[in-house]
Amino acid sequence: QVQLVESGGGLVQPGGSLRLSCAASGFIFSSYAMSWVRQAPGKGLEWVSGINSGGGSTYYADSVKGRFTISRDNAKNTLSLQMNSLKPEDTAVYYCAKDWTAIPGILDYWGQGTQVTVSS
Question: Is the model's pLDDT at 30 over the cut of 90?
Fold first, then answer.
């Protein structure tokens, strides 16, 4: 079955960096787009970033554009999110999600999430 396991979250000071990883299994990773979605305390889900199946096209929410970088390694079935210049408003649980097709759009499987806290 599809499994998505996130890691790399933690506590970081404003302006700092973190790198999230997602280990995928149970499906042909290289055939599907992948996304990162977050949920801040007391708020709804926010799509953060997506990448197509081949890794050649990336997409970002305006709130993270220029600060976050999504990437994937299809040989290792891993998805990553490099987060720089972190702000307190980036505090959230971050979820790795599998897309329905090769292009980001509809999400059909989610990981358990990893907590990111940005605070001094």
Answer: yes
- Is residue 104 very low, low, confident or very high in pLDDT (cuts 50, 70, 90)? confident
Kindly give, in sequence order, each residue whose CB lies less than 8 Å from that of residue 3, ignoring residues fewer than 6 positions away.
23, 24, 25, 26
List residues bridging with 106 in a β-sheet.
none
111 with 2: CB under 8 angstroms?
A: no
SS3 31: helix
Residue 23's CB: how many other CB atoms inside 10 A? 16
Residue 67 CA: distances (Å) to CA of 35, 63, 86, 112:
16, 9, 8, 24
- Which residue is associated with the tokens 């999600």? 97
Cβ atoms of 77 and 29 within 8 Å: the answer is yes
Give CA 65 to chain center in angstroms: 13
